[in-house]
Design a protein that fits this description.
heterodimer; A: 233 residues; alpha/beta; Rossmann fold; 6-stranded mixed sheet; 4-stranded antiparallel sheet; globular; B: 627 residues; mainly alpha; ABC transporter involved in vitamin B12 uptake, BtuC; two-stranded antiparallel sheet; 71% helix; binds adenosine-5'-diphosphate; binds magnesium ion
Chain lengths: 233, 627
C-alpha cells in the first residue's frame, strides 16, 4: 500500500536519509526503530512531503506521491501524527477534531466525533477545553483522533508513546490494534521497543539514515544482538 | 471639556478606519506570514475606486443612497478581487522564499499601484461627495460633530463582530485559525492552503478597500496615502500582536486616541522649546509602539510566532570565504574603478560615486540582515543621521570637512547605540518594525526641528574641502573610503566576532549555552552597521552639497532593503551588486520613462519570481550545483 523506494532526503545542505526503502501493506503494523537522530521522523516527514526528497520515489495505493503537496498526500489517505503532537493550542478539542475532518473515501465505516469518543473516552469530557491546556497524554490522544477524523487508510505515528505514563501507553497499544483490526495500515516510529514489538507485525531498524534490519517483529525479538547494536538498549 | 470629548470621538473615528486596514493586514499575515507592504496601496485604491464608482452611479445627477453605498461596496469588492489576483500571480510564487523576499515582492506591488493610480486618476487630489443622509452634524456638548463620523465609529465594532463570527462560526474560519497556528500541520491534515491563502488575501484586501472607500466623504483621494496608511497599519498590527484581530482592534483604539490627543493638546512649550504635537503624531505613535514592544514583545494580544519550516535551507546557508578567483575579480573591479576618471564623463562619475556610497550603505545593512540575522526596515536612520551629523558639524559647528566626515558616523553610531539597545530585545518582524519606528522618530525630529535642520528644506552648501572639491578628487575619496569600509565589514564577518554573530543567529539558545551574550553581540552588530551606514551618509552629503529629510525617510530604508534582497542576503557580494543594479536602474529608468516606478516594480517582481535567492545567491547556487 505504501512503498518507499530508496529515498534520500535532508534539511538544506544536511543530508539525513540515504537510499532508504520500506514497504507497508494494508492491515499491517510496521515499526521503524532507531536511536535518536537516526532519521525516523525524517522518514515519516518525507512521506508527507514535509522534507524534500533529493532522490527516490514514494508510491501509495498504486499512485506516485513524491511530487504531490502535503495536503494532497493527506487527501490521498495518509494520516500523520507528529512527534511533537502539534495540536492547535488555541482551538478547543472539538475544533481540533473538526479541523481534521474529511469525508470518507469509501472503505470502512467513517470516523465521527461520537465514534472517536467511544474509542477514546478520555476525550469525551474535554470537548470545549482549549487544546493547549491538555496534559501530554490527552494531547497525544487528541492528535491521533484529529488525524483519524480525516478517515485515512494509512496512518504514520511518530513516537506516540514518548513521555507517556505506562497506563496511557497501554491504551495506545489497544488503539493501534483496533486500527489494524479496521484494516488500516500503521507505520510507527519508535524508541520504545516493548510497546513497538507488542503492536507490530514487522520491524525495521534504521541507523544514520539507512536500513540496517528488516523483518518480522518476532525475528527481531530473537536477535538480541541487533537491539544491542542499534537501539542503545 | 467638550473639546476633549470631541477629540475622543475623533479618535474613535480614526480608530475604525485604522482597524479595517490593520485587521486585513493582520489576517493576511497570520495565515500567509507575508507582511503585505501593499496593504496601504489597496486602501488607496479603495478610495480612488469609490470616487469613480460613485461618480459613475450618480451619472451627473445627485448622489443617491444607492449610488453612494453601491459605489463603496463595488470599490471594496474590486479591491478584494485585486487582492486575490495579487496572491495568485505574485505572492503564491514566493511563499517558499525567505520572508524578506516576500516583502520585496509586495513592495514592488506598491510601486506598481502608485503609478497605476497616477496614470488612471492623475496627481490632483480628488474630493468625493458627502454621504447622502449623513451629511449633517449632530450637537454633542454644544459642539457640532459630523454624523458620518458617528457612523464610522459604529463600523469598527460592527466589522470586528462580523469577523469574529466568520472566524468562529464557519468552517472556513476554523481552518483559517488552524492554519494560522500551524500551517504545516494543517496541510498534513489535508487542508488545501492555496484556497485559504487566496481567500484570506481577498478578504484582507476587501477590508483595506472598504476602509479606504469609506473615507471618501471625509478626505480627498491622494496618491501618497499608501505610505501614510501602511505605516499606521504596521504600527497597529504590531502593537496589537501580529495575527490577532481583537488585538488589532484594541491597538487601533489606542493609536487612534493617542493621535487625537496629540491634535487636541496642540502646541506645548517646555524648556524654551515649542513643540507642535499635532505635527509629531508619528513620533508619539512610534513611542507608543516602542513602549508596548518593550513590555510585551509580541504585542498586546499576540503570541510568539512558531518558526516556519525552511525547506530551502536558506537559514543554514553559510557565507563562503572568497576564493582566489573572486579575490582576483575584486581586485580587477577596484583597479578598473581606479582608472575610470581617465575616460568617464562627469555624469558617469557621479553615478559611480552614488553606486559606491550605496554599496557601502547596502553592505552595512547586509551586515545586520545576513550574518547577524536582524532585518532592519529603518536603516536610513543611520545613513540620514550620518549625513545630517556631518552637514551640521560642517555648517553650524564650523568644523572642517575632513572632521565633519568623521563626526557623521559618530552621530550615527550613537543613534545605533540607543536604538539598538531596544531592538535587540526583539526578533524577526517585530524587531524590523521597531527599527522602522525609530527611523520614523529620527525622521520626524529632523523634519520638525526647523531651527537646527532647516526642516523640509534641509541643509544646503555642504561642499567638500577645496582639495577634494573636484569630481575626480571626490571620486577617489569615496572609492578609498567605501572600498576600505566594505573590506573592513568583510573582515568582521569572518572574524571571531562574525562567527559568534552567526552562532547567535542560527541558534541563540546554543550560543547562550556556550557563554555568548547574545543580546550584547547583536547590539554590537547594530553599532557596526549604524556606524558604516553613517559614513555612507556623510559621504553622500558632501557629494550632493545639500541634504533633505528624504535621506532618512522610509523610502531610503526601502531602497537599502531592495538592494540587499536583490543581490541576495546569503552572499557578501550581493549587496554590492544590488546597490549597483538599483542605483543604475533608478537613474536610467527615471530619466527616460514617466512611469518608472511601475517599471521598477515589474522588474523587481520578475527578479523575485525568477531568482528567489537573489541575483548573486542564485548564480552562486547554480555554480555550486554545477561543480
Ligand atoms: N529541522 C531540521 N533541520 C536540520 N536538521 C534536522 C532537522 N530535524 C532533524 N534534523 C537532523 O536530522 C537527523 C535525523 O533526525 P530525525 O529524523 O528527527 O531523527 P529521529 O526521529 O530518528 O530521532 C538528526 O541528525 C537531526 O539533527
Ligand atoms: Mg524523531
Amino acid at each position: 500500500m505504501l512503498s518507499i523506494r530508496s529515498i534520500s532526503a535532508g534539511y538544506g545542505p544536511a543530508r539525513v536519509l540515504f537510499g532508504l526503502s520500506l514497504e507497508l501493506r494494508a492491515g499491517e503494523v510496521s515499526v521503524i526503530l532507531g536511536r535518536n537522530g537516526a532519521g525516523k521522523s525524517t522518514t515519516l516527514k518525507a512521506v508527507m512531503a514535509m522534507v524534500p526528497l533529493s532522490s527516490g520515489q514514494i508510491w501509495f495505493s498504486g499512485k506516485r506521491i513524491d511530487r504531490c503537496a502535503t495536503w494532497e498526500i493527506a487527501r490521498a489517505g495518509i494520516g500523520y501524527v507528529a512527534e511533537e503532537r502539534r495540536i492547535f493550542p488555541d482551538l478547543s478539542v472539538l475544533e481540533n477534531l473538526e479541523a481534521g475532518r474529511r469525508s470518507a473515501r469509501g472503505h470502512g465505516s467513517p470516523w465521527s466525533v461520537e465514534r472517536i469518543i467511544a474509542l477514546l473516552p478520555a476525550l469525551g469530557p474535554l470537548g470545549r477545553r482549549r487544546a493547549g491546556t491538555l496534559s501530554g497524554g490527552e494531547q497525544q490522544m487528541l492528535a491521533v483522533a484529529r488525524t483519524l477524523m480525516g478517515n485515512p487508510s494509512c496512518i504514520l505515528l511518530d513516537e506516540p508513546s514518548e513521555g507517556l505514563a505506562p497506563a496511557v501507553v497501554e491504551r495506545l497499544a489497544t488503539l493501534v490494534r483496533t486500527l489494524r483490526g479496521e484494516g488500516m495500515a500503521v507505520l510507527l516510529a519508535e524508541q520504545n521497543m516493548r510497546f513497538a514489538l507488542a503492536v507490530s507485525d514487522n520491524a525495521h531498524i534504521i541507523e544514520k539514515g539507512g536500513l540496517r534490519f528488516s523483518g518480522t517483529a518476532r525475528q527481531l525479538q530473537e536477535h538480541a544482538d541487533l537491539s544491542a547494536e542499534y537501539l542503545a538498549l | 471639556m467638550s473639546s476633549i470629548v470631541l477629540q475622543f470621538l475623533n479618535g474613535l473615528t480614526s480608530a475604525s478606519t485604522l482597524f479595517l486596514v490593520a485587521a486585513g493586514l493582520s489576517l493576511i499575515f497570520g495565515i500567509t506570514r507575508v507582511l503585505n507592504f501593499a496593504h496601504g496601496s489597496l486602501y488607496m485604491l479603495g478610495i480612488y475606486l469609490a470616487y469613480s464608482a460613485i461618480g459613475v452611479f450618480a451619472g451627473g445627477g445627485g448622489v443617491t443612497h444607492a449610488a453612494f453605498w453601491g459605489g463603496i461596496l463595488i470599490a471594496a469588492t474590486v479591491v478584494g478581487i485585486v487582492g486575490a489576483l495579487l496572491e495568485v500571480t505574485v505572492l503564491r510564487r514566493v511563499y517558499r522564499s525567505p520572508e524578506l523576499f516576500q516583502l520585496l515582492a509586495t513592495f514592488a506591488v506598491v510601486l506598481l499601484a502608485k503609478d497605476l493610480v497616477l496614470w488612471l486618476w492623475g496627481p490632483e487630489d480628488l474630493l468625493g461627495p458627502r454621504a447622502p443622509g449623513l451629511g449633517g452634524a449632530v450637537e454633542i456638548l454644544g459642539s457640532p460633530f459630523p454624523e458620518y463620523d458617528l457612523f464610522l465609529i459604529a463600523v469598527g465594532p460592527l466589522i470586528l463582530g462580523l469577523l469574529w463570527l466568520l472566524l468562529h462560526a464557519t468552517r472556513w474560519g476554523l481552518l483559517i485559525r488552524a492554519a494560522t497556528q500551524d500551517r504545516e500541520m494543517a496541510a498534513a491534515l489535508g487542508i488545501n492552503q492555496k484556497l485559504l491563502f487566496t481567500s484570506a488575501f481577498a478578504l484582507g484586501a476587501f477590508l483595506a478597500g472598504l476602509g479606504g472607500a469609506l473615507q471618501i466623504p471625509r478626505e480627498p483621494a491622494q496618491h501618497f496615502l499608501d505610505f501614510t496608511v501602511i505605516v499606521d497599519a504596521f504600527v497597529v498590527v504590531v502593537v496589537g500582536g501580529m495575527g490577532s484581530i481583537p488585538g488589532a482592534f484594541l491597538a487601533a483604539l489606542l493609536i487612534g486616541e493617542v493621535k487625537a490627543l496629540c491634535i487636541g493638546i496642540g502646541d506645548v512649550g517646555a524648556f524654551g522649546f515649542s513643540i507642535s504635537l499635532p505635527k509629531l503624531t508619528l513620533v508619539v505613535e512610534s513611542l507608543v509602539m516602542a513602549a508596548v514592544l518593550i513590555f510585551r514583545p509580541w504585542g498586546l494580544m499576540g503570541r510568539a510566532l512558531a518558526v516556519l519550516p525552511d525547506p530551502a535551507g536558506a537559514r543554514q546557508a553559510l557565507l563562503e570565504k572568497s576564493t582566489p578567483r573572486m579575490r582576483m575579480a575584486g581586485i580587477a573591479i577596484i583597479a578598473g574603478l581606479a582608472v575610470t576618471p581617465a575616460f568617464a564623463n562627469e555624469y558617469s562619475l557621479v553615478l559611480i560615486i552614488d553606486i559606491l556610497i550605496f554599496a557601502l550603505f547596502a553592505s552595512s545593512l547586509h551586515f545586520l540582515m545576513g550574518p547577524s540575522g536582524m532585518a532592519s526596515f529603518g536603516h536610513a536612520a543611520y545613513f540620514g543621521l550620518g549625513a545630517y551629523g556631518a552637514a551640521l558639524a560642517f555648517k553650524h559647528a564650523g568644523f572642517p570637512m575632513e572632521i565633519s566626515i568623521v563626526i557623521g558616523p559618530v552621530i550615527a553610531t550613537i543613534a545605533a547605540l540607543a536604538f539598538g539597545w531596544f531592538c535587540v530585545r526583539l526578533s524577526g518582524v517585530y524587531l524590523a518594525m521597531l527599527t522602522l519606528a525609530f527611523a520614523q522618530i529620527a525622521w520626524s525630529v529632523v523634519y520638525q526641528w526647523d531651527s537646527l535642520t532647516g526642516g523640509s528644506n534641509g541643509i544646503v552648501g555642504v561642499w567638500p574641502a577645496p582639495w577634494l572639491s573636484g569630481r575626480v578628487a571626490y571620486f577617489y575619496l569615496v572609492l578609498v573610503l567605501c572600498g576600505a569600509a566594505i573590506g573592513v565589514l568583510r573582515r568582521i564577518v569572518f572574524s571571531p566576532f562574525g562567527y559568534a554573530l552567526r552562532a547567535c543567529r542560527d541558534s541563540p539558545l546554543r550560543a547562550a549555552a556556550i557563554g555568548i551574550d547574545v543580546r550584547r553581540f547583536q547590539w554590537m552588530a547594530f553599532l557596526v552597521a549604524g556606524g558604516f551606514a553613517g559614513l555612507a551618509g556623510a559621504l553622500f552629503a558632501f557629494s550632493k552639497g545639500s541634504i533633505s529629510p528624504e535621506v532618512l525617510a522610509i523610502g531610503q530604508s526601502v531602497d537599502g532593503l531592495v538592494m540587499v534582497l536583490l543581490g541576495g542576503v546569503q552572499t557578501l557580494s550581493g549587496p554590492l551588486v544590488g546597490a549597483a543594479v538599483l542605483t543604475w536602474l533608478q537613474e536610467l529608468v527615471a530619466r527616460h520613462i514617466d512611469y518608472w516606478r511601475a517599471l521598477l516594480g515589474l522588474i523587481i517582481i520578475v527578479l523575485v519570481v525568477a531568482f528567489p535567492a537573489g541575483i548573486v545567491g542564485q548564480l552562486s547556487s547554480r555554480r555550486r550545483t554545477a561543480e
